[in-house]
C-alpha cells in the first residue's frame, strides 16, 4: 500500500517507519528541515522516500496527518484535493502545557479536530486514530506490555476506510478498537486530553498504554 505522511515529527516519523518496515511504500513530507526529512526516510529503509506535501498526497492511497493543530489549515492547503483518499488523523487540540484543548474540549463536546478536518478536506474518508498513544511507545522496539498489547480506538464514517485503518493499527502492534462514527472523535479527543494529563501527573509518561479488557 502507498502511504503519504503529512507531518514528519515524532509521531509521523515513528508511524511511517513502522509501516515502511511492514512492507508499505511510505512517502514522508511536511518538514521545515529537509535534511531531517531525508534522514527519517533513510532510517525507515528502502520502502521510504521523501516528497513535497502535494506529492505525498498524490502518492498515497492512505494519507496519515500528524501535523500540529496550529498549522493544520496550512498543511491541508498545501495538500490539495484529497477526494476519495483514506485520511487518518491524530491531530490534537491539546495545548503544549496540557491544560485543556483549543476547542474547549472536554467540557464542550460540540466538535472535534477530526470533524474540522473532514470539513477542510471534502471528499476525504476521515478516520481518527493514534491519538491515544505516545510517540515514544511507537519508537520503541515493541508495543508489548508483557503478554498484553495496548488498545487503540479509532472512529470514522466510511466502513472500508475504517477496515484499512484497523489493519494498519494492528500492524503497529496495537489492538484496534472500533469506536463508531466520526462524531465519536469528540469523546476520543476528550479521553486523549485526560490520558495525557494523567500520564504526566502520575509520572507514567511515556512508558504506558491504555488497555480495553474483554471477557
From TrEMBL:
Keywords attached to this entry: Oxidoreductase
MF annotations from Gene Ontology: oxidoreductase activity
Domain (Pyrroline-5-carboxylate reductase catalytic N-terminal): residue spans on this chain: 3-92
Source domain of life: Bacteria
The name this protein goes by in its record: NADPH-dependent F420 reductase
Gene3D superfamilies in UniProt: NAD(P)-binding Rossmann-like Domain
InterPro entries: NAD(P)-bd_dom_sf, P5C_Rdtase_cat_N, STEAP_metalloreductase
Organism: Drouetiella hepatica Uher 2000/2452
Amino acid at each position: 500500500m502507498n502511504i503519504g505522511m503529512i507531518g514528519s515529527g515524532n509521531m509521523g516519523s515513528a508511524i511511517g517507519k513502522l509501516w515502511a518496515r511492514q512492507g508499505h511504500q511510505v512517502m514522508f513530507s511536511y518538514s521545515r528541515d529537509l535534511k531531517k526529512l531525508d534522514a527519517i526516510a533513510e532510517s525507515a529503509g528502502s520502502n521510504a522516500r521523501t516528497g513535497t506535501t502535494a506529492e505525498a498526497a498524490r502518492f498515497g492511497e492512505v494519507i496519515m496527518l500528524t501535523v500540529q493543530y496550529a498549522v493544520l489549515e496550512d498543511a491541508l492547503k498545501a495538500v490539495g484535493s484529497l477526494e476519495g483518499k483514506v485520511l487518518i488523523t491524530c491531530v490534537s487540540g491539546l495545548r503544549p502545557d496540557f491544560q485543556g484543548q483549543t476547542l474547549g474540549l472536554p467540557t464542550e463536546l460540540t466538535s472535534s479536530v477530526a470533524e474540522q478536518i473532514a470539513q477542510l478536506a471534502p471528499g476525504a474518508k476521515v478516520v481518527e486514530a493514534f491519538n491515544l498513544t505516545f510517540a515514544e511507545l511507537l519508537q520503541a522496539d515493541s508495543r508489548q506490555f508483557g503478554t498484553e498489547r495496548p488498545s487503540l480506538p479509532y472512529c470514522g464514517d466510511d466502513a472500508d476506510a475504517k477496515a484499512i485503518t484497523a489493519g494498519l493499527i494492528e500492524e503497529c502492534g496495537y489492538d484496534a478498537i472500533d469506536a463508531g462514527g466520526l462524531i465519536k472523535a469528540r469523546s476520543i479527543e476528550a479521553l486523549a486530553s485526560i490520558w495525557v494529563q494523567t500520564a504526566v501527573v502520575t509520572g507514567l509518561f511515556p512508558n504506558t498504554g491504555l488497555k480495553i479488557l474483554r471477557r
